[in-house]
Amino acid sequence: MGEETRREWTAPEGEGGKEEALRRLGNRALLVSLGGFVLLAYWLIRQEPSAEERVSLLVNSLAALCTLGILTILYGENRVYRFFEHVFIGVATGYGVFITWRDVLEGDWWKPLAYEGKWYWIIPPLLALLYYTIYIPKYAWMSRFIISIMFGLAAGQAFQGFAAEMGPQITKSFKPLWGPDLSMAEVFNNWLFMFTLLCVMAYFFFSFRHRNRGVQGASTLGRWFLMIAFGSIFGSTVMARFSLFINRMQFLLFEWLQLHERLPWMR
To answer: 78: Cβ–Cβ under 8 A, 6 or more apart, which residues?
Structure first.
């Protein structure tokens, strides 16, 4: 027993031995932490007097366990994270199937077919089954029909969405640069907008070389404007991620552990 334990905790010989030992140590630390979490959750549940509060705390404890399991990826790839990742994917898939049935299939397909006598609604699922003929080499050619139909529908919807999205943006680009009804702030904003738009367009204009100094300057400014825009987008993305993280920390500290009630100085 002692020899096996010593061999298990000793770094394996060869390349990557220390990394393997650290990985094992980290996995053990994670398991110990999860065990402590279970004991802490059990102690918290025992502190609640009523059955409803115990059930609520049990649900919050499961949610906290999933949160902490996902956050173990900050340490590195580990089995705990993989387990909760699979749990998340499974729950999300089941939830997606349920929402698809409740909001789409039940009302738009099943009820007309089963209760309203619209028998022709049986055709869409039969066509959808043609997708699976791709796994049968002899009948794989049949899947091309439904795939071509879906590609055509997707292309039409994409073009429609592009026109609906880009059309208003193009028309909104034509702003009045002066007028009696415009304030000084609106005039300045419209001039700045048009200047930025022309500079960015000059950066993406590749029909001729940018030998003219004016075109070169506008192209350089357009590149800087793009960098500012991308930076603001990245910053907003980071802030969105931080808001999610802060939300989970508030859940762990205040909804699960209820530190604002247990510690007077946090009230």
So the answer is: 23, 26, 27, 30, 72
Domain boundaries, the chain: 1-84, 177-267
Instruction: Please tell me whether residue 178 adopts helix, strand or coil conformation.
Output: coil
Could you tell me the two tokens for 25?
């140590």
141-194 pLDDT tens trace: 999 989 999 999 999 999 998 888 888 888 888 888 888 888 889 889 999 999
Nearest to 23 by CA among 38, 9, 35, 6: 9
CA-to-CA distance for 256 and 252, rounded, in angstroms? Answer: 5
Q: In sequence order, which residues have a C-beta less than 8 Å from that of residue 86 and are 6 or more positions away? A: none
Cα–Cα dist 254/267, whole Å: 10
Cα separation values, 77 from 22, 165, 199, 265, Å? 12, 40, 45, 37
| Three-class DSSP labels, 156-191 | HHHHHHHHHHHHHHHHHCCCCCCCCCCCHHHHHHHH
Inter-CA distances, 245 with 6, 19, 83, 248, 250, Å: 39, 29, 20, 5, 9
Separation CA 126–CA 119 (nearest Å) = 12
